[in-house]
Amino acid sequence: MGENSNVINPFNVFTTQVSISYTLDLWGLNRRSVESQQALADAQRFQVEGAYIALTSNVVVAAIQEASLRAQIDATLQIIDINTKMLDIMRRQFSTGYASRSDLAVQEASLAQIKATLPPLRQQLAVQRDLLSALAGRFPSQEPAETFKLTSFRLPSDLPVSLPSKLVDQRPDVRAAEEQLHSAGALVGVAIANMLPNFTINGNRGYTSLELANLISPPNLMWSVGANAVHTVFDGFTLLHQERAAQATFEQAAWTYRTTVVGALQNVADTLHALQNDADALKAARDFERAGKISFDLARQRMETGDANVLVLLTAQQTYLQALIQVVQAQASRLSDTAALYVALGGGWWNRESAPAPEQKFETVTATTQPITSEQKHGFLAGISIKR
C-alpha cells in the first residue's frame, strides 16, 4: 500500500448556465386573465366618472335651489313692502274715519303672517349654503363666495322632446356594466383554458468544466431542450363546475347590463316628460302671476279709494304671493330637470380636455362564450327608442 493511499483527491465541477422556461398560451389562459383584469380596471374608472358626475349634478341642483330660495325671499319682501304701504294707507283712513278698526286689524294680521314666512325661507337658504360648502369639500364657515340667482341661469335655446337611444351609450353606469360583462366573458375563457393541458418549453445553455480557468471555452459548451405537458386527469369535476359557474356569472352580468341600459333609457324618458310638463307648468304659472297681479292692483286701487272691502284686498294679496312663489318654483324645476337630462345622458365626461384613457379593445378567443361586441351592443340599443 502506497504512502498516498489515505489522501482524498478533491473533484470539483464548475458550471454556468442560463435556464429558460416558456409556457405556451395556446388556449388563451393568460391573455383572457389580463383581459378580465383590464375590464375590471375600466369598470372602476367608469365608476369614478359616475361619482364625479353625481357630485357635479348635486352642486348644480344645490345652486339652483339656492337661487330659487333667494327668488322666493325677494318675492316675499316685495309683498311685504306693498302690504306695509297699504297698512300705512289704512291707518290714515282709520284716523280720518274711512276705515274701521277691524279692517285695520285684518291688514296688520295679513302683514304679520307674510313676515312669518321669511325666517323659514332664510333658514332653508342658510342650510343650502352649508350644503354647497360641503359639496365643494369645505367647512360650513368657508361658504362659497358666489351667490346664485335665477336670472343668472340660462336654459339651452332648444330642449329636445325626443332623443336617440344610442346617447345613453356613454353613461358611466352603462359603460361600467359593459366592462363587468366583458370581464365575466373573459373569465369564461379562463375557466375553459383551465380544463385543457398546459404546454411548457424548457431550455438550458451554458458551460461546465472541471477547471475554472477553462470554464468558458467551446469544448465545454453544453445545452439541453425539453418540453412537458401538464393536464389534470381527475379533479372530481371541480374544473367543470368552475366553468359552469363562470357561465352563470356571465349570464348574470348580461342581465345586469340589460337592466342598466333599460334603466338609463327610462331615466332619459322620464326627464324628457318632466321637461315638457315643466314648460307647460311655467307657462301656466306666469299666466297665474299676471292675472294675480291685475287682481291685486285693482283691489289695492279700490281699497285706496275706499270702494273695496279689506277681505277682497287680503284675498288678492295672498293670491298674488302664491302666484309669485309658484313662478319661482316652476323656473327652478325646469332648470333642475334640464340638469337632470344632462346627467341622464352621461354628463358629457368624454368631452373633457383631460379625458380618461381611451377604451382598450381585446381579441376574444373563448370557445363557447364571447364578450359583447360594440356591434351587438349598438344593435341592442337600437331596438329601444325614446320618443314622446
Query: What is the domain total for the residues?
Result: 1
Percent helix range = 55-70%
At CATH level 2, the architecture is Up-down Bundle
CATH topology: Outer membrane efflux proteins (OEP)
Q: DSSP helix count?
A: 7
Largest sheet: 3 strands, antiparallel
The multimeric state of the shown protein is single chain
Structural class: mainly alpha
Residue runs with pLDDT of under 50 for 5 or more positions: 355-372, 374-388
- How many strand segments? 3
**β-strand amount:** 5-15%
Strand adjacency order, main sheet? 1-2-3
Order of helices and strands: EHHHHEEHHH
Using only CA atoms, what is the Rg? 39 Å
CATH class call = Mainly Alpha
Question: Would you summarize the structure shown here?
Answer:
With 388 residues, the chain is mostly helical.
